[in-house]
Amino acid sequence: MTFFGTVLGIFIVIALASWIIGYNALIKYLNWVEESWEQVEVQIKRQFDLIPELVDTAQPHMRHEQALLEKLLELRGGLDSRKQSRAEIVDADEALSASLRSVFDKKQDNEGLQGNEDFERLEALFMESEAKLDKAKRVYNNTVTKYNLKIQSIPTRFVADAHNFHSRETVHIP
Fold it and tell me: Of 38, 57, 166, 55, which is closest to residue 115 (Cα–Cα)?
């Protein structure tokens, strides 16, 4: 075998190994992005599932605030992750969270809710869930940033272009 043939063979092996390693790295990062998004969805669903119980608990004590409670249910109904982008889901959840904070702020003006253990338990669950959701969003954004950087770096950029790996958008954190 000639010197040129040996060099060419080594180059082909190195290029093929780099391609395989780059592809596997992109798959790994993409899986991390999807796993971190699932954690965001878990926390959104947790809040989503508590809303009917909150409305049932607050409704007898908030007769003058029926519009606010109806808005909560309307926002909950509009949050369908199958039809919305990730940014739209986060925006809808932020609107829902703002309405929830309004309901919890009304507790101070309402004697029936001030000592209500169920209402206070639900408020604590929502606050805990909101803190976990913010953390999950930060993890998601961090993971997306790392994935996007991986796509832009050489040699994985060539692999990403060839296999249609696209950058992902981060989500807004209030």
Answer: 57
Phi-psi region of 166 (alpha: psi -120 to 50; beta: other; left: phi over 0): beta
- Written as six digits, the tokens of 68 are 């606010």
Q: What is the pTM of this model?
A: 0.82
Calpha distance 88→81 (Å, rounded): 9
Q: What gap in Å lies between CA 100 and CA 19, rounded to an integer?
A: 49
Residue 46's contacts (CB-CB under 8 Å, 6 or more residues apart) are 125, 129, 132
pLDDT digits (tens, 9 = 90+) for 121-165: 988 999 999 999 999 999 999 999 999 999 998 888 989 999 999
- Per-residue tokens: 14: 């190195």
Interval 69-98: pLDDT, tens: 777 777 777 666 567 788 888 888 888 888
88-97 contacts at long range (C-beta below 8 A, 24 or more positions apart): 89/41, 89/44, 90/40, 90/137, 90/171, 90/172, 91/172, 93/44, 93/47, 93/133, 94/172, 94/174, 96/47, 96/48, 96/51, 96/72, 97/47, 97/130
